[in-house]
Amino acid sequence: MFNVLKQVTDYAKESLQAAKYIGQGLSVTFDHMQRRPVTVQYPYEKVIPSERYRGRIHYEFDKCIACEVCVRVCPINLPVVDWEFDKKSKKKKLNHYSIDFGVCIFCGNCVEYCPTNCLSMTEEYELSSFDRHELNYDNVALGRLPYKVTQDPMVTPMRELAYLPKGVLDPHDLPAGAQRAGRHPEDIAEELRAAQAKEEESKEEKVN
Amino acid sequence: MNSGIDLQGTFIESLQDLGLTPGLAKLLWMPLPMGLMLIGATIGVLIAVWLERKISAAVQQRIGPEYAGPLGVLQPVADGIKLVFKEDVIPAKSDPWLFTIGPAIVVIPVFLSYLIVPFGEKISITDINVGIFLWIALSSIAPIGLLMSGYASNNKYSLLGGLRAAAQSISYEIPLALAVLAVVMMSNSLSTIDIVEQQSGYGILGWNIWRQPVGFIIFWIAALAECERLPFDLPEAEEELVAGYQTEYSGMKFALFYLGSYVNLVLSALVFAVLYLGGWESIIPIENLGALFGISENAPWLQVIDGALGITMTLIKAYFLVFTAILLRWTVPRVRIDQLLNLGWKFMLPVALVNLLLTAALKLTFPFAFGG
After folding, report:
1. What is the pLDDT of residue A74?
2. Residue from the list B62, B63, B331 with its beta carbon closest to the beta carbon of A29
3. What is the pTM of this model?
4. Of A98, A108, A177, B273, which one's alpha carbon is 20 to 30 angstroms from that of A171?
5. CB distance from A39 to chain B under 8 Å?
């Protein structure tokens, strides 16, 4: 008899608990309704890529010495370096250079290892095309600089989260000249340079 | 009580003054409320679809439709036009007749059910004395259409979806009917207008929600299941069944299903408002306010305001319920089929029965409060 009563009370308790949890869930969703949308309305608004953004690779033909280091460090040996040995000058003569961005994974190894810094990463990421062969960029296409988001009159540039002032989560309607949180890298570099100069001065004094 | 606005009476009378016979005048009147009902239900659906998209977007911190009209209000219209122009595909190995009739059987009863929804004392299409029973009877036709279209599609997902829809509708019809029965017992009438009348006079305190708190919850859960709204949207669970019985449909036939589901949602919300939230009654009793300022109840301008207020109150209540349904959609996960049937048969049915018996007992002991 008491066993049945206990079962009934337990069942009722469980039902009430379930109702409570649904209520808590509803309060969460209701709270989210009042928050501002996080949407960046591409293509009218675009996020400014960070300085370290690994976008489409830029290549300077004239700097390249055809050493093929980029090919060796590439996970899939992707860059195509077409050169021939010029017997007169006893130097490699570069004819063509190409990277297929349909295959590239944008790891940045080639940029990292290039001895003459002729490779660099840009902030371009809009690489879609109707034919995948169009993504095979030759040295002319690789030499083009991308259009900057901040200079495009059609686009409202939006700052990324790390570049917003402290406590701000929304890039829309920032006041003019709002600085990002924390110290700027150039300030830190300036400080370090000053400290280094001071140290050297004191060293010189010691020597003297 | 005052008679309120009698549009039908005045319309027929004015036509008779023009020299028409009473029968002809009545015949001329008849298409007007029918057309109004169709237009009203469709506009209600457009608003519900827009609300669904906008509220869903807000809950997920998105913007939602924005470019079609101000705040994207024309988005459902654009969706509709797109569906009208799409190709109407009938699968090769399907049964073309059943495949075509299915969506119609789902949609027509839902639209018919709008006949019984009152927006004011005289502002309803019909006042039949079996009103709420008609709604329950009509809503049990829809699963036949769903099963029909699921079976005729000749697709395993469609068939499973159709079977699930039928199982779900049948098992949730019973608690729904029992919850309605408790309300009917208190108001001694099946007519929706009588049910609202019985709740009137005390403003928000007189609404059935205070006398039927259990029935209120049971009705809402069962109505969500009947509408196949999210905690119970198993028949069209896209992760498991592609789109359930809608899988093979496109173009206008798909649009009918889509329209039907939203019409059903708005209708359920309206019926819910009528049964539990006092229908067209305001939060404060308006008759008393009129008496307070010494205005006659029969003043024409007061009656116009009263009518407009009644429609607004009904719609506000209904759309509040639509809002909670949308919010629930993003709050609770979908139940499994065994959980769904467990909830229906092992929880809702006994609780609804106890609620009915309790209402009967309370009616006998406190006849003044529970409509003796």
Report:
1. 92
2. B331
3. 0.77
4. A108
5. yes
